[in-house]
Amino acid sequence: MHFKDYYQTLGVARDATADDIKKAFRKLARKHHPDLSKEAGAEARMKEVNEAYAVLSDPEKRAAYDALGRGYQPGQDFRPPPDWDANFEFSGPGYGAEAADFSDFFAELFGRMGGRPREGGFGRRETRFEARGEDHHAKIVLDIEDAWRGATRQISLRVPRTDASGRVVLDTRTLDVRIPQGVREGQLIRLAGQGAPGPGGGAPGDLLLEVHFRPHPRYQANGRDLLVDLPVAPWEAALGSVIPVQLPDGSRLKVRIPAGAQSGRQLVVRGKGIPGNPPGDLELTVRVVLPPADTARAKELYETMARDLKFDPRAASGG
Amino acid sequence: MREGDVLIGALLEDACLTLDELSRACAVPPDWVVEHVREGLLPVPGESPAAWRFSSRDLARARQMLRFERDFDAVPELAALVADLLAELDEMRTQLRRAGFE
Prior knowledge:
By secondary structure, chain A is an alpha+beta fold. Helices cover 25% and strands 24% of the residues of chain A.
């Protein structure tokens, strides 16, 4: 296990005041907050910042960390001596579900002494939830095809566990999860009893998976509605036609394009979107694609249209 | 729940989480939720707290507001304002993507 320099993580001196630490944390939270930052790795960085702040903002933990970490360099191999924490008193309420996001280093140091992350002022020192384990949260990224057909996905979670000596260690747990057909972006999948174990033998919490869809080159989803761009040739749009549309399961649905459909025209096929109860709609957006005028024949055809059709696309706008 | 080694998830439909379930999922006392609903910072999910049912989206919003309140010591109204703006931003990004601009 490597030593983590929490002061370096927050960019503050070892003698920084509580106020300096809070300011540094907020500045970094502003930069890396997963709700605000689109940077790759922002979430992982925010976890490090949260962990450093959980220790340095708590006078008890900071004192213990300072005493233990004296002389260590970041990344240096580190193993705390047995019972190193015997002289410190920790008043935290226990180990919280959020600490699953923290490092092994944190778990090793604070695992058995109220090493719960910041309580945040929401009365989390209350004991009313102690009978039942906390719910865990995780994100799961799926393809639209998975929502269409249903799928089985493997997810890995870090879960705090108390070992025989009473110390909390972080286990990596792998679960195979069946994703039901018809799942929607932002929807939750509840895995009952797969959250944190209940203290004192209470019932375990649930694991709540929040569904996100990976961007797809052909399809987008709005709830269970499937949105598809439909490229058509000018004559298909002008004269009307029946066009096969490929669905996420590979099947094809024949759709009638009405004569005179302009680019941007939306066509809705009820009940042919993502399957479910009820199923979504299939929403097609017509996009007229011009054939290139790259041969003599093609140029001639365009010139014929220009001559014979007397068409002015700007007439309606007065342009 | 189990089918062999594969866990079967239950899809949470709209308006399905009770006050207790939402509070537990956010790891806050129910009072926190009640206060935020009464102040108009979370959608009013029904007649009385016993009949309230929250959606997946409400849970995501509540957890997002909690993070702002906790990480920035934001007052609840400010946390709700940021959550509103981010929701609008998300909606606009989605529309841009649909229009082929992203």
